[in-house]
Specification:
This protein has 8 helices and 5 strands, in the order αααααβαβαβαββ. With about 190 residues, the protein is α/β, with parallel strands linked by helices. Strands 3-2-1-4-5 form a 5-stranded mixed beta sheet. β2, α7 and β3 form a beta-alpha-beta unit. It starts with a helix and ends with a strand. This is Pyruvate kinase. Pfam families: PK (PF00224), PK_C (PF02887).
Length: about 190
């Protein structure tokens, strides 16, 4: 089907046509489309997809894209359960999703519109972080970033998405407004 081919060709999202969305069975149409997407996605071999993407992207890469690519490779090599990233604009999420990691990407943001836009990227789950700047007053960027990460890890543990001993990746920048990604860490959940 067109939906399956779109997924196999690397589409991040698909949408219903106007006729289908307004037809007699829109819920069933969405359920069928979801089923087709899941089946087609299970047929994609992620290592091969990563190799194809790597071959298609010609160096030099931007610093942020280099970090995104390396973070996804680390996630695949460590069999990470999740990738966490911080973003204000959504660029970090887009760059990470581009390389098709095998695990979900958890996007932490304070920007609701960027979070909503992140829903259009494959495997991305945005979360509005409730930590207010006032809560973090006096902390330097490293402490602030660590506070967000610990909040997200606790949330994912409570949702049973991760557990003690799991590997996760945390990709982020160090300063607000600077390049979107400048480092990543491999973390074992405690």
């Amino acid at each position: 089907s067109d939906v399956a081919n779109a997924v196999l060709d690397g589409a991040d999202c698909v949408m219903l046509s106007g006729e289908t969305a307004k037809g007699k069975y829109p819920q069933e149409a969405v359920e069928m489309m979801s089923s087709v997407c899941l089946e087609a996605e299970s047929a994609v071999y992620s290592k091969l997809a990563m190799a194809d993407l790597t071959a298609a992207v010609k160096p030099p890469l931007s610093p942020s894209e280099s970090i995104a690519k390396a973070a996804v490779e680390a996630a695949n090599n460590r069999e990470a359960v999740l990738i966490f990233t911080l973003t204000y604009s959504g660029t970090s999420a887009r760059l990470l999703a581009k390389y098709r990691p095998r695990c979900p990407i958890i996007v932490l943001t304070k920007n609701a519109s960027a979070g909503a836009a992140c829903n259009l990227h494959r495997g991305v789950m945005p979360y509005l972080c409730p930590l207010d700047d006032a809560d973090l007053e006096g902390e330097d960027n490293a402490d602030w970033i660590e506070s967000w990460l610990q909040w997200a890890i606790a949330k994912k543990k409570a949702e049973n998405m991760i557990s003690e001993g799991d590997s996760v990746i945390f990709a982020h920048g160090w300063k607000s407004g600077s390049q979107s990604l400048s480092t990543y860490r491999v973390i074992t959940v405690e």
